[in-house]
Amino acid sequence: MDFGRVITAMVTPFDENLQVNWEQVEPLINYLIEEQQSDSLVICGTTGEAPTLSDDEKLKLIELSVRYAGGRCKIIAGTGSNDTAHTIHFSRKVEKLGVDALLIVAPYYNRPSQEGLYQHFKAVAESVQVSIMLYNVPGRTGVNLDAETTIRLSQIPNIVATKDCANTDQLTRILNDAAPNFLVYSGDDSSALPALAVGCQGIISVASHVIGKEMQSMIKYYLEGNIQQAAELHRKLHPVFTGIFRVPSPAPIKHALALKGIQTGGVRLPLVRVSEQEGQFIQSLFV
């Protein structure tokens, strides 16, 4: 399974009443593929405000995304939760929609042991045929999917990749000992280039909504051996990588999209729109 180098964790477009703006889904997907050069899209991830979407909204959004992408990029659907039974139930439904993979987050709040994490992902993987990408984001879940557990899980045939927001030490340990062809993606925009340097496949990004082309160029420079150019571009983009997370995501990236004329609306509570001052800061990143 080749998901490419730059995967965008897509926002969910809302209207003025914070209902899903179904008419804006296709233009957003076209923009991300054609203008920002996304190789794959994650639908209904954290950036897509999955915790505040109903299962029916998720199913429709995933179905439309598969249709509108039309094979131009891979579609990865977020179906994980902190309830193994519900994750299995929902993953089976989503599998039928023709997605290329499922993104399964480490169970949050419960804080399971490493054995509990292993058994959770194993049970989900065995319940479906579609490829699975693990998602480790300790800052949000309260638990780290350790390198050793990821390595064990990589031996399960349809667990083919991981999105890991841990440090490069953990990424390196996974890369050293995971199953052959197991793909490792960084989930931290500012670590895109360092992650490539230790052997990661690429980045699952929020910033790529607005600087995806530049990120592709940075990666291309690196892969072609133009290390200095890649490093210079990384440094140039770094304020955006970090600045769009100064307040809770995805409010900043939705504001940045609006500055580019891409309307994706506000965010659902408990998130709130950026303030005027925060909006001015975000605008300054692109001047």
UniProtKB/TrEMBL annotation:
SMART domains tied to this protein: DHDPS
Residues the record marks as active site: Y135 (proton donor/acceptor), K163 (schiff-base intermediate with substrate)
The protein's enzyme class: lyase
PROSITE patterns listed in its UniProt record: DHDPS_1
Catalytic activity: L-aspartate 4-semialdehyde + pyruvate = (2S,4S)-4-hydroxy-2,3,4,5-tetrahydrodipicolinate + H2O + H(+)
Keyword set includes Hydrolase: no
EC number(s) recorded for this UniProt protein: 4.3.3.7
Alphabetized Gene3D superfamilies for the sequence: Aldolase class I (3.20.20.70)
Subunit organization: Homotetramer; dimer of dimers.
Name of protein: 4-hydroxy-tetrahydrodipicolinate synthase
Lineage of source species: Bacteria, Bacillati, Bacillota, Bacilli, Bacillales
